[in-house]
Write a structure and sequence with these properties.
By secondary structure, the chain is of the alpha+beta class. 48% of the residues lie in helices and 16% in strands. The protein contains ten helices and nine strands. The protein has a five-stranded antiparallel sheet, with helices on both faces. Helix 5 packs across helix 9 and helix 9 packs antiparallel against helix 10.
Length: 294
């Protein structure tokens, strides 16, 4: 098993995480049997979930088994996938709550949108706006169990001494103002960065939705701060971020300042998430500074 993935799960979830890791082979075997899967191979790119590539023996279709430790997070993703129903997003084929697993269609050749960075930035932004238009127009039920961006932003009210006080206070105040003036909420992907948009031959589709409710403009913030490490190391990082904000404002017909403010708040929130996970938030704070100056 990938050692970095093993370390991440055990650091986050302790003994329970270790037990879940130990149970993965049997969980995968159960899923493979009930969903008639063959040619199983573990993805070389693991983060917070265990991903297995496979073929469905009934029709030889390429599929993906995704197993996650956090059952609530997996349920939110399942709900979002069911609501999107393949519109702008990968399609959910089956699920098993007991095994904490989703069965998804596999996108081939799965070229990530990050492959367009930095030389085809405008094209990447145009692709993302097109995907957003599909994702944000799905019909929503009267009641949905999904969290809201207000729920996420509650974390900013906690103390985090590792993050500069200036950014904490500014992000808190902006978040309050933005939430108070939100437009009609839609179903957001919640993590629509370049690595979560893959090519399916001639089209691009999203993967790994978080499933969260909020106004449409919130969605672009994740793209604006990614790919974080490559972005902050680029000699024209400030110009890239400024161009992103300007082009999103033009294509979406949304106030530039609102895009900038949401992107800044999200960068600081992402820094909180990193500290919460025991990671260094320095790079994310640098992104927040670049957005602040855009």
């Amino acid at each position: 098993m990938d050692s970095e993935f093993y370390t991440t799960i055990t650091q986050l979830y302790g003994q329970d995480g270790w037990l879940w890791l130990e149970s993965l082979p049997s969980r995968v075997a159960i899923c493979a049997k009930q969903w008639h899967l063959t040619d199983l191979s573990v993805s070389p790119h693991l983060s917070y979930n265990y991903v297995v590539m496979a073929r469905r023996s009934t029709d030889n279709a390429p599929v993906v088994i995704k197993l996650g430790y956090d059952l609530n997070t997996l349920r939110y993703e399942q709900t979002a996938l069911e609501l999107y129903n393949g519109a702008g997003c990968v399609r959910l084929l089956a699920h098993d709550a007991q095994q904490q697993a989703l069965l998804l269609e596999q996108l081939i050749p799965a070229r990530p949108l990050s492959s367009l960075f930095p030389h085809h930035e405008n094209s990447a932004i145009e692709q993302l706006v097109g995907i957003m238009k599909q994702l944000h127009t799905v019909a929503l039920p009267n009641v949905t169990p999904l969290p809201t961006i207000a729920d996420w932003l509650n974390l900013l009210e906690h103390n985090c001494p590792e993050i500069p006080v200036y950014h904490v206070h500014k992000a808190r105040e902006l978040a309050r103002q933005l939430l108070a003036s939100q437009q009609k909420p839609v179903l957001l992907h919640g993590d629509l960065h370049q690595g979560n948009m893959l090519s399916d031959h001639a089209t691009w589709r999203a993967i790994d939705p978080k499933g969260v409710m909020g106004e449409s403009v919130y969605e672009v913030g994740t793209f604006i701060r990614n790919p974080t490490q490559l972005l902050i190391e680029h000699e024209h990082a400030q110009a890239i971020i400024t161009n992103r904000i300007n082009l999103f404002a033009e294509l979406m017909q949304i106030d530039r300042q609102r895009i900038k403010d949401w992107s800044y708040v999200q960068a600081v929130l992402a820094a909180f998430w990193q500290e919460q996970d025991g990671l260094d938030s320095e790079d994310m704070i640098r992104v927040a500074e670049l957005i602040d100056q855009a």
